[in-house]
Structure formats: C-alpha cells, structure tokens
Task: structure prediction
Amino acid sequence: MSDADFLSALHGSAFDLLRDESPIDRVHRHIDGDAPFDRELWSTIADLGWTMIAVPEEHGGMGGGAEALSLLQEAIGAHAAPLPFLGTVLLGEALAAWPDEALSAELLPALAGGTLVGGSADLLASKPLRLVRSDQGMTLEGETTVLDGVAADWLLVRVEDAATPGLALLPATAPGLSCTARPVADRTRAVAELACNGVAVGPEQLVLGDAAAPIADKVSRTAMLLLAADAIGGATAVLDLTVEYLKTRVQFGKPIGSFQALKHRIADVKASLEMAHRLLIAARRQADGPDAGYWAAMAKSSACEAYIEVASEAVQMHGGIGFTWEHPAHIYLKRATLDRALFGSTAALRDRVGAALLDKVA
Amino acid sequence: MEAIEHPSEILDRALLDASGDSERFRAAVRDWLGRTVPSGWRAEQAAATEEEQLRFQRWWSVEMAKVGMTSAHWPAAWGGEELPIAQQIIFYEELARADAPNMAAYVISLNQLPATLFGAGTQAQKDRYVRGVLQGDIWCQGFSEPGAGSDLAALRTRALRQADGSYLVDGQKVWTSNGHFAKYCLLLARTDPDSARHKGLSLFVMDMASPGITLRPIRQSNGQHEFNEMFLDNVVIPAENLIGAEGDGWMIAQSALSSERGLMIFEIAERLRRYLSDMARQARQGAAWWSDDQYRREFVSVFTDAEALALMIRAMLEENVEHAEIAGQSAPMFIKLFFAKLLHRATELMMRVQGLDGQNMLPDISTNGAPSGNWMHDYVTSWSWSIAGGSNEIMRNLIGERVLGLPR
Result:
C-alpha cells in the first residue's frame, strides 16, 4: 500500500468508525454528564492504533507524521467526538523531541498504547509557570491553562526561569499540583486550570532557553494543523446538516432552501469552506517542509474562520430549533470558537503569516 | 490591417522543446520574456490611442504565436500544442512575474471560439477560423441583450432562414466586448420565432464587416471602452456560417463555456498575487501601512485567500487532466465566486491603505480585469468579474442548486 493509499484508507475508516461509535446522541449524553472524555471510545481508538501513529517506532509507535494525525483529527472534528486526542498527540510530539531520552522511553510506549493520556498548554499564548530554584532543588509555581488537562496523566506546559522561557513535563499526580475543569462552553473537550504550588521538578523534566524553541515550534505547528483539520471536519459536518435542513424544512409552501436569502449565504460559506480546505491539504503536504509554519498558520486561521461562519449560519438557518440545547448546532458552534481560540487567535496568526511573508518576498 | 504571416511557418520551437523539463522550460520562458517584453510597455500603452492599443495587442498575440504559446493550451486535436498542465501553470506564473502584456482582446478567440468549433463546427469552419486566430483575428461574442442579461435564454434577436438558405438577422446585442476590434462575432440568435427560452436558439459566425451592423461604444465606469452596443439591422449571414444544427445553439454555447478550464482565472489570479507580493515587498522596505494592525491583518487575510485560490485552481487543472470526465463540475463555480469577491476585497484594501494617493485614477490599459497595481482603477474594474460571465448572484444560485442540491 502506498503512503497515499494508506492515508486515504485511514481517513475513510476514521470517519466510518466515529459515525458508528460516536453518533451525535452519544455526544449529547457526554456533554450532559461529568466525564472529562468518552473513555470507552478512547479505548476503541487506542485499540485501533490511533494513539501510536505518530510515536517513533523505537518507542512502540508507527513513526507516522502530522499528515496522518490531521486526517484522524478531521474525523474527530466532524463528529465532535469527546476525546483528548489533541492533548495526547501534542504531549507525544514534545516527548519525541525531548532531550532526556529516559523520560521519552518511559512515557511514549504507554502513550502509544493509549494508557497514558496527555494534556498541553497553548504554547503560543498560555501563561508560563515560574521556575523557582532553591537549595532544596527546583519547584514550579503559578497557574496556567491546559487543553485536555482534566484527566491527563502528564502535562506539557510553558515555564519561565527568570527571563528564560522553557517547557516542562509534569505528572498529574505530582504533590502540589491541582487540575480542575474550567467551565468552557465546548463540553466536548475538557480544559483544565492547572495550579502549581511548590511542585518539585527534576532537570529531566525541563528544557530551557534555545533548546526549547524548536520543540515549542514543532508542537505548535502540529497543533495548528490538527486544529485546522478539526475545523474543516466540523464545518463540513455542520454544513451538511444545514443543507439537509434547507431541503426539508417547508415554510410559505416551499423548502426554505429555495429562498435566495438563504441559498446565497450557504453558497458563500460553502465556497469559503472549499478554499480553506485547499489550505489544509497544502499544510498537510508541507507539514515537514521548510514553510510548514507559514502554511499551518494560514490553514488554521482560514479553517477556523470558515468553521465559525458555517456554524453560526447553521444556528441561524435552523431557526428556533437551532437555538435549542437538543439540536447539535451549538455543539459545533462552541467547538468552533474553542478551535479558534487555541494556538493562535486569527489576529495572532495573521501576524505570524505576515512576518513569514515578508521573509518569503525578500 | 497588414497581413500577418501564419505563425506555424515561422514557429520558433525553443520553448516547446524545453517543455519536457519544468526547470528548463521556466528558464526558457523567462529568457524569451526578457527578450520580448518591451520595457515600459504598460505606461506607453496606457497613454496610447485605441488603434495603437489594438496594434500592440495584435503584435503581442503574434509574438506569443511565434513560440507556440497562443495555442499552447489547446489539445492536439485542435491543432494546439497540448502543453502539459504543469508547464501551462509555469507559463502563466512567468507572465505575471515579468508583468508581460496579457491577451485581453483574445479571450473569445483563444477559449470559447475553438471550444465551440471543435465541439460542433464543420471541418471548413475549423480550418478557416482557428487558423485565423493564430494570425491575430479577434473575436467577440454576441450573447447578451438589453432584455437578456443573467436571464440569457430570454434573448430576442432573430435569425430567419431565407429562401436561399442564408439567415436574415435583426436585433440588438449589448456588452459586446472588443466588438470594435473584432473580425468575427460568435452570435446567438433565435432561429425559431415561435420558440421559448433556450429552445430554438442557434449559433453563428457573423462577419463583423457585414452590412447592417452598427456599433455604439459604451464607456465604462473605469473610463475605458471595451464593450459596445451592437445593432443588427437586416444582417445577412450565409448558411455555411451556422454552427452545428439549428436549435442547438444553447447547448453548444453552454458546453463551450464550461470547457474553459480555469486557465484564464489562473492567469489573472497570478497577476493579483504578483501585485500583492509587490505590496509586501514595499512593506518590507518600510511602507507605513504595514505597521497598522488592521491594514496588515486584512492584507494577510487577502493574501491567504489568494494562496487558497491558487491552490484550488491548480488542483482543478490537475484534476482536469487526470479525470476529464468528472472534472469541472463544481470547482469552477467556487473559483469564479471566490475570485470575484477576493478581487473586490484586495483592490479596495490596496486603494484604501494608500489614503488620498489611492484616490488617483490613472489611465490604464484594458486587461480583462487583471489588476495592474493602479489600485483605484483596479478597484473600479473589479466589478467586471463579479458581474460578467455569470454574476456572483448567478454563481450562488448555481452552487446552491447544482452543488448543494437545493431546490430552485
């Protein structure tokens, strides 16, 4: 099987699986409950190897790339599946590049097997924890926010050693560490408020200064690509839902989709979504290339803007039913806003792309 | 008009011979453009008379033909060079990069006319008219009428068959681009006076030198005169100028229109990207607008959409090659609508960031809507893409109905 065939089969099977295993009524039951994620579904996808795809082969993974991950995330986004996939993937990306190989060797096999769940702070915007050095060793202090952090076993966070930025890996069980759920609107993902009060860290858990930048870059690029994929998946699904409604809902004796006031708006969002999808495809193909960051940032900003546009039209065009808790439009709308808020607001991404563009035209 | 030698007799194969290898081809195109494009042509042409502009257009079309590039996008069956799609893309990228003249007056000649004749024309029609295009013949299109714009099937111009087999044409056409330069017109008229809508329409080759044709120039909002009103008063069209069968005109015209494979928008989109890149280069050199957060972010948003559009067109062009039977179903509609909206946004932004300087509208050449960096002019001209060739509203209907399956 060629790479392209493998990826195409992976994409199709991921959509099929989630259609069967994560139908929207199951997502509804999840958001009405207290569980941080759908554990049964998580073990199903882990059994299928989703968590091992990007883990290096020497640590029990398949050594795949961001392209494969983004195809899976697109399916997860399409079904708004309540899974800590992104947090786990980002922790894995950091571990694969982590200088202390003993820690990677300890954690990655469990991550690949799905028994270790990861969480990650937004490495572009989250508040760093303070590293405090004393005679007794090093501790972390402060609060920050961690995606998929509520039930995570290990967390990737930003730190600051005086003025030097860096990254840290923390076990959720560390004394002095607490992770509590934030009341984010998107209940298909659990975002944690992490508080550290004298959390002891060893040097193997830290990467500081210049060594941290390439790891943070790699993790951020993967995050942008996966969030773009999540957005394209979700936007496509909620568009399909809306088009179906426009064909079947009758008012004034006609299907409402025959009215140009609606038809023209849905045509506009469809065209925007198609264009954003092209950027996602380009960003996937460039994921390991020299312009990976440029394409990932463009894909993420366009996909998230298109997702918001489609999801808000979905609510509006469904009328009263679109404003109810029972209808899934709000699930997608809220997921769209969280996708957009993570790893670079649209404005921040525009600035990143702008800076990269000036280098490219030089 | 002086006769121009048929380019096939003076064909310089340098570019075509290099087309097996992308890098060599790009270098050959760059070299040819460097030798051929006159420096300062744009400013000169902007100040030239209509006749001088026509001469320049014809000169450029023959220069293109000499290296096999006017017919490069045509299949071999049309007598074209069937240049691989990757090389056609390179060619247009290089035209944009060199800011070379474009073939604005030849849009019908190079795309719709050959598609029409190779779809439905007789051998004699193909031999005569397609050869003529390579010698610089300009064609116009006689479709729209005062009462038939977006609703083209409402057209009323009549072509009634006479006893000798010829057709007698009466009616009025409008928005006839380059009608005043054209040697021939691709005319859509009603041959069955009792027919309704798209039934009973037929397609003709009309010689623009025929008695009874009166053109009245229409001055556009950008100050230019590309299109005309065309009055047809007892114009005689010989029987052999009917294309296909009587009554098949609508079908033939639709299939020719849909055969345009996106290269035209690709060329213009590449030119837009080129000028946006120039603006980015100015920003790099310290242009003040770049430090305004709103301007800069709007610019990046526009540039991002231009990148997405280029990717979409490339994907469509490549798919056309691999899956000719399924290609072109939905992508051209997204591309047309998205491009027209992008062109508005891009030109409006660039005009706006220049403040009062952006209010100057310098005279410019006719470019089929391709931007020229004369932003107020480009801005006013950008409506040509959102109105002509299926307005944005028509494209939204098509996307809604044909792509999304919404009811009419």
